[in-house]
Structure formats: structure tokens, C-alpha cells
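This entry is set out below.
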Amino acid sequence: MNDADIRQLLDDAIARPNLTVQVEGLDRHLHVLLVSESNAIADLSELGELIAEEVGTFVSDIDELTIWARCRGDETARRLTTIALSDEASPASPS
């Protein structure tokens, strides 16, 4: 899937009028930016779980997912979470 297909998948899954989703895939790492109309998105953890589930289920070539959020009009986004979607993306445990 390309970035536009993934964005459409997430737009359909989230279906919130005051939330814009932007997507950029970089070397098996997908970055998802949630841009909200207000300063707070009440259910960020639920949205993160939903996004991870959708990407993990429907996108086969992504090993890691990072979700970002920012308020519309702000320049800076804040990282909400990074999720390993495959064993290869998980950090190796120390010996």
C-alpha cells in the first residue's frame, strides 16, 4: 500500500470530522500525524490502538509505527508513541 492508500484506510477507520490524518512511510517505518482542530484529542490512547490495529492488519510492509499529534496551526508535533509491528522492529534484549 502506498501512503495515500494508508491515509484513506485510517481516515475511514477514525472517521472524525475535526481530525486530519497525514501519513509518511520511510523504510518500513510508518509515521502518522494526527492534526486536530482543538488543543486536545480526548482519546489519544484509543486512537493509537485503533491505528496500530488497522496498520498491523492491512499493511504488510511496515515494521514500526510512530504516531504524532499537533493542533491545527501549530508548527510542532509531539510524538505520542512508537509501536513495533513485527519482531524484527523490537529492540534486542541485552545479553
Observations:
- The longest helix spans residues 44-58.
- The longest strand covers residues 19-26.
